[in-house]
Automatic annotation (TrEMBL):
PANTHER family linked to this entry: C4-DICARBOXYLATE TRANSPORT SENSOR PROTEIN DCTB, SENSOR HISTIDINE KINASE
InterPro entries: HATPase_C_sf, HATPase_dom, His_kinase_dom, HisK_dim/P_dom, HisK_dim/P_sf, PAS, PAS-like_dom_sf, Sig_transdc_His_kin-like_C
UniProt cross-references to SMART domains, sorted A to Z: HATPase_c, HisKA
UniProt KW keywords: ATP-binding, Kinase, Nucleotide-binding, Phosphoprotein, Transferase, Two-component regulatory system
Keyword Nucleotide-binding: yes
Species: Paenibacillus azoreducens
Name of the protein this chain belongs to: histidine kinase
MF terms (GO), sorted A to Z: ATP binding; phosphorelay sensor kinase activity
Upper taxonomic lineage: Bacteria, Bacillati, Bacillota, Bacilli, Bacillales
Enzyme's top EC category: transferase
């Protein structure tokens, strides 16, 4: 009898030990930053952790024990997520796809990995990880590579193009008196204008690869923004839109190359004007400019109520030569990106299609004594 009791006690201790280990590992899985779902060989969801339930925005209790069909019919699951899950399910079963890249409603990017086969005893493990930061680093590295390549190209061809343009311009000016006599001065004017435009594109092309080093001066942010608004008033009036500056009573100062920073802000404001040129009447285009600070930076915010941008446009926004305009060079924002980076700052963009766009330029603050 004593032997039986001892055996039972050992079995109980072994069970409790196994249960403790199981609880420990389940607790770890519960609180991973990756979302996890485990389906058994019958297609029933046997485990889902806290992170995955948060991503799906459905309670774990209501999902555990469901089949894939039941999950797709779940009343709390959004239509958007149902479409994504169905696509992943089909690609996994039909094409045996192991990795899926997803973008959620807020624009964040996720990598979903499917594990099955002999090592899972017929089960299917789905794990999801937020890779937005990695993608951002990847895009920045790609952008920097393109800018470096652009610098090499521009250095080798800029003078070769500019020299003949200068010669052509000189000869057209010599011929201009003869063209005036023939009543063809308009031809000379158009040719000179187009040569100047070509020179401007080359200049912009050169600056996009390597803007000159900032010649910094400490300046008041409100006075800088007032000047920008004054420079854009006439164009805004012609386009029937408003540019409103919300002034902050707090003194804000930054140490910048005034010409370069003014170029960045004007470029963004002009882009905003292009985005709202379809609006008119009472609900006309509106551009709002404001500035505020935190402990380290001054944030200059430029928002509009225009068309807005989709995720694909936002992803490539600062790439050289990327443009959505028919006559654009695609260099303005890539130049702006490099200028702000050279000032130890950064540019952020928030945009929703049909609602508008906000650019936020952040630059190190200067504390005045």
């Amino acid at each position: 009898m004593g032997d039986i009791q001892e055996t039972l006690l050992q079995s109980l201790e072994a069970f409790q030990s196994t249960q403790l280990v199981k609880n420990k590992y389940e607790n770890i899985l519960e609180h991973l930053d990756s979302g996890i779902m485990l389906f058994d060989s019958e297609g029933v969801l046997t485990f889902i952790n806290v992170q995955m339930a948060k991503l799906l925005e459905v309670s774990r209790k209501s999902l555990t024990g469901c089949t894939m069909v039941q999950i797709l019919r779940h009343p709390q699951l959004s239509r958007y997520k149902k479409k994504k899950i169905l696509r992943i399910y089909r690609e996994t079963l039909i094409h045996r796809k192991k990795y899926h890249e997803l973008t959620d409603e807020s624009g964040r990017q996720w990598l979903l990995t499917v594990t099955d086969g002999d090592q899972m005893d017929g089960d299917y493990l789905f794990s999801v990880k937020d890779v937005s930061d990695f993608k951002q680093i990847e895009q920045t590295a790609y952008r920097n590579d393109k800018l470096a390549m652009l610098g090499k190209i521009s250095a080798s061809i800029a003078h070769e193009i500019r020299n003949p343009l200068t010669a052509i311009r000189g000869f057209i000016q010599l011929l201009r008196p003869h063209l005036i006599k023939l009543g063809k001065d308009e031809y000379a004017r158009i040719i000179l204008m187009e040569i100047d435009r070509a020179n401007d594109i080359i200049y912009e092309f050169l600056n996009s690869s390597k803007p000159s080093a900032p010649q910094t001066t400490v300046i008041s942010v409100p006075s800088l923004l007032k000047e920008v608004v004054l420079l854009t008033e006439s164009e805004a009036l012609m386009k029937g839109c408003q540019v409103i500056l919300h002034e902050d009573s707090l003194p804000l100062h930054i140490s910048v190359d005034v010409k370069q920073i003014k170029q960045v802000i004007l470029n963004i404001v002009k882009n905003a004007m292009d985005a709202i040129d379809h609006l008119s009447g009472e609900n006309g285009g509106l551009i709002e400019i404001r500035a505020h600070r935190d402990q380290k930076n001054v944030h200059i915010c430029i928002s509009d109520n225009g068309r807005g941008m989709d995720h694909n446009t936002l992803t490539h926004l600062f790439d050289p030569f990327f443009t959505t305009k028919e006559s654009g060079t695609g260099l303005g924002l890539s130049v702006s990106y490099r200028i702000i980076k050279n000032h130890k700052g950064y540019i952020a963009v928030n945009s929703t299609v049909g609602e508008g766009t906000e650019f936020i330029i952040s630059l190190p603050i200067v504390e005045m004594a």
